[in-house]
TrEMBL record:
This is Helix-turn-helix domain-containing protein. Keywords: DNA integration, DNA recombination, DNA-binding. Belongs to the site-specific recombinase resolvase family. PROSITE patterns: RECOMBINASES_1, RECOMBINASES_3. GO terms for molecular function: DNA binding; DNA strand exchange activity. The keyword DNA-binding applies. GO terms for biological process: DNA integration.
Amino acid sequence: MTHAPHELVLDGDPLEAIGAGARVGYARVSTADQNLRRQVDALTGAGCIRVFEEKLSGKNAERPELWTCLDYLRKGDTLVVLELSRLGRSLQDLLSLVSELRRRGVEFTSLHENLDTTTPGGRLVFHVFAALAEFIRELIVDGTREGLAAAKANGVRLGRPPAMTPEQIRHARALLAEPDTTVASIARLLGVSRSTIYKYLPELSANRALEPAESGPPPALPS
């Protein structure tokens, strides 16, 4: 059963009615901890007037409560999570979400990591995170390019493997020398299509290319 979001009320009116920006919490279950109570208690204790509770793990791409929470936030508000891993599935995902919040004028706080984008130190940490993520991406791209170049220099074939090996092509040519052997029977024997046979054996005559598919079992082939 999904819990309703928690909302702090003072003197009969929600705290968000007060002019100051609100602190809004987001809690999500983890693989190790499926109980949100601890997160909700910590977030309400940190002054959150409302906590959106996500029952789906981070492996699930659909996080409906997160999108509802983001839509609920207004300029001047602060999104609060217990720890960074509760918001983003990866560093890139986290940076993307926080950057979008900052663009909208919404701040971000993570209690366990003591990160707060309302402070110069907190903003600096996220700038470092962003620079680190970009650096890692460049390393991956450079490493991939160097690996491809080295493989090509060593004669490694890149891309999809061929449908027929040189040995299969030689075998097919030898079988075609037999007068009663058909392209269809060779294709079945080698586990490829007739069009593949024609592709790798371009010397096949036009009348063989027009040969109809066989309806019966293939003839006996020489061993």
